Amino acid sequence: MGEEDGFIITAETQMSAVKKKAAISRSWIVLGRSGEGVILDLDKFEIMNRVPINARDLRILDPLLSYPSAILGRDKAIVLNLEHIKAVITTDEVLLRDPLDENVMPIVEELQRRLPLAGGGEAEDDELPQARNNGVGISTEHNEFPFEFRALEVALEGVCSSLDAQTRELEVAAYPALDDLTAKTTSQNLDRVRKMKSSMSRLTSRVQKVRDEIEQLLDDDDDMAELYLSRKSATSASGSSDYGHGNWHFAADDDESRTSISKISRSSSRASALTTSQEENNVEELEMLLEAYFMQIESTMNKLTTLREYIDDTEDYINIQLDNHRNQLIQLELFLSSGTVCLSVYSLVAAIFGMNIPYPWRESHGHLFKWVVMLTVLACGSIFMSIISYARHKGLVGS
């Protein structure tokens, strides 16, 4: 058994990693309240026996299946699928998939640092009975941030920070490439921008999925209440205790006492149910946590939106340049076509006079060749200028 980066790696795990290099990793790290972690090789049936979730929830965490980002609250667990973080959170432990992955290792280290309570959990448990005996109304359980929320916060922070870092890297590479493309449109610059635009589209899709999942949670108080595992566990334990206490009272033989106790029990049950309902509807603590990371992921989304707009503006500018060059080529084609028409007229005259046919007027008219050439050139020039003047009058060519 060895240790690596603060958590324990068993010999069985090392042997398993050697045998399954080509297979999908099934390694999970189990982190408890103390922050200590143990890496285990678990299949889905062993996980289902360890954590109260069903196979459908485990499929969400399967890396071979492209499920979107999800934060699901179950009776005794939170199923978390956010980018590279695939975890199951309970009130006592966190199961994180692929802990040796380079993207997951920082999350493991952060969980080990932040899961343990400040001051130690055992000392607080020892002081808790004395505080209750002294009539202290505020207990440690209410003051501390629930275990599942500490784990959820680390996961959200890791995902949001990772996406924001990737966005900053893309910005650093994209803006100079776009400026180079604006200055000089070449195949190399166009290929660079194409690759960056493709990367930006994929990154935007990933950020959008995480943002939509957090926004969906914020819009539904019932979904947020499902994530309060500690509260549901305490409520369940309290209900069982009240039920046993009521049975003990009803063991009395006196009917009148039984009736009065029944009334008191019903009234206390109503009050307890009302208090429990109010507590279940109070999701302000989780709402503040989700809002903080929603603002962070929204800021990342705004950066990507700004970058997309800059790319669109660059594309519009390049298209305007291409249209201008295309118009210049069309004007050049018009000039060349006009010159070709004029030369065709000149060639027609030359062909007529070049026929080897005896004409009576060809004799003793040596100066006729000079006049034919001069008149033909003037006629072709007049035709060419007429075509260009008409094109400029209609706005087909520039002045």
Question: Which SSEs are present, and which pair or pack?
Answer:
Blueprint: E1 2-4, E2 7-9, H1 11-19, E3 27-32, E4 37-41, H2 44-50, H3 55-60, E5 70-73, E6 78-82, E7 85-89, E8 93-97, H4 105-114, H5 121-133, H6 140-143, H7 147-183, H8 187-219, H9 221-226, H10 229-249, H11 255-281, H12 284-353, H13 368-393
Parallel strand pairs: 2-4
Antiparallel strand pairs: 1-2, 3-4, 3-8, 5-6, 6-7, 7-8
Give the low-confidence spans: 17-23, 120-143, 248-253, 267-278
Largest sheet: 8 strands, mixed
Mean pLDDT: 78
Count of strand segments: 8
Strand order of the largest sheet: 1-2-4-3-8-7-6-5
Instruction: Tell me roughly what share of residues is in helical segments.
Output: 55-70%
User: What is the tally of helical segments?
Assistant: 13
Helices and strands: which structural class? alpha+beta
Strand content: 5-15%
Radius of gyration: 40 Å
Report on this model:
With 399 residues, this protein is an alpha+beta fold. It has 13 helices and eight strands. The protein has helices at 11-19, 44-50, 55-60, 105-114, 121-133, 140-143, 147-183, 187-219, 221-226, 229-249, 255-281, 284-353, 368-393, and strands spanning 2-4, 7-9, 27-32, 37-41, 70-73, 78-82, 85-89, 93-97. The protein has an eight-stranded mixed β-sheet with strand order 1-2-4-3-8-7-6-5. Strand 1 and strand 2 (7-9) form a beta hairpin. The protein is rod-shaped and about 130 Å long. 19% of the residues are buried.
